[in-house]
Design goal:
The complex is a heterodimer. Chain A has 4 helices and no strands. By secondary structure, chain A is mainly α. Chain B has 3 domains: 82 residues, Four Helix Bundle (Hemerythrin (Met), subunit A) (Up-down Bundle), CATH 1.20.120; 32 residues; 59 residues. The radius of gyration of chain B is 21 Å and the shape is globular. The chains are: A mainly alpha, B mainly alpha. The interface between A and B is large, with 52 and 56 residues.
Chain lengths: 123, 173
């Protein structure tokens, strides 16, 4: 099998993640052992800044959030293509610059459209 | 070492995939989907596909999950609304049949798949993103620009579908 060359560089990251998980688990565990537990209904109710709840949290979100999220995904994908381009920039030269210019130009049209339609306005 | 990680990532992927469609609370389904995507990223890492690994985390685990959560909040689903679960048995049988069929095809397939012309050693030397960049911008130029047009279509589609008509007419004629 060819994939015996698994990146050993990721072992520190794995170690780091193990420490993160262990930290969370251990501190919660110690907390649950050390703290006294005297629950009563008023203590268990959700609260915000000490004031009582006045409505259900599950209300439909405005559509704007969806547009923002969608635009974020699209420009995220633009970044995905920018990254390998930037890494190979010296090798790709002027032609690569023109190719990426065209790509960004196409997406700029979309950005301009979004701007003109007021999709970026919050009101 | 590799088989251990592979078994972990693939087992958790399958489990999280099942939980994504089986959990009653839609937000929990979103979290299960996040787990699934992160473990698939781990599988990419085991295949030395570091670029795909990072992209999987940034685009899928980051952006796509956020999008899904926004849609869940837009739809305002209640916890116990099981729309699709009326014909549970039928769906289960169909899903099992499709999975079994795919597995059979994969195991008995006469096709080996296209052999890449870049060996692992060469890719590791230059770095995966370098190899991908050179390939995209030399061989798959047209496809790359078509992706740009697709993304443009996605922007326009999202705005046309989601923008409320009252807010569009900001500018006077």
């Amino acid at each position: 099998m060819a994939n015996e060359a698994v990146p050993l560089n990721y072992i520190p990251i794995l170690l780091f993640m193990a420490i993160v998980v262990a930290f969370a688990v251990i501190s919660l565990l110690i907390g649950s052992i050390a703290r006294p537990s005297h629950p009563y209904p008023a203590k268990l109710t959700p609260y915000e800044s000490g004031s009582p709840l006045f409505s259900d949290a599950r209300v439909p979100f405005p559509m704007r959030y969806y547009i923002i999220a969608m635009l974020f995904v699209i420009f995220d994908i633009e970044f995905v293509f920018l990254f390998p381009w930037a890494v190979g920039f010296k090798q790709l030269g002027l032609l690569g610059l023109l190719e990426m210019g065209l790509f960004i130009g196409i997406l700029l049209v979309g950005y301009w459209y979004a701007w003109k339609k007021g999709a970026l306005e919050w009101e | 070492m590799v088989p251990v990680f592979f078994s972990y990532f693939s087992l958790v992927s399958i489990l999280a995939g099942v939980l994504t469609v089986a959990l009653p609370n839609p937000v929990h389904c979103g979290l299960a989907l996040l787990t699934l995507l992160l473990h698939v990223a781990g599988l990419f890492l085991l295949l030395n596909a570091e670029f795909l690994f990072v992209i999987q985390i940034i685009v899928y685990a980051g952006a796509i999950v956020v999008l899904y959560l926004f849609v869940l909040m837009l739809l305002n689903l209640k916890t116990d609304e099981r729309v699709l679960h009326h014909r549970y048995a039928v769906i289960l049988v169909a899903a099992a049949a499709i999975c079994g069929g795919l597995l059979l095809m994969a195991l008995r397939s006469p096709f080996q798949g296209a052999k890449g012309h870049a060996p692992v050693e060469a890719v590791l030397q230059d770095g995966g993103s370098y190899a991908i960049g050179i390939t995209i911008f030399n061989e798959y130029l047209l496809q790359f620009e078509i992706v740009g047009v697709f993304l443009l279509g996605a922007i326009i589609g999202a705005i046309v579908l989601a923008k409320t008509p009252t807010a569009v007419d900001v500018e006077p004629e």
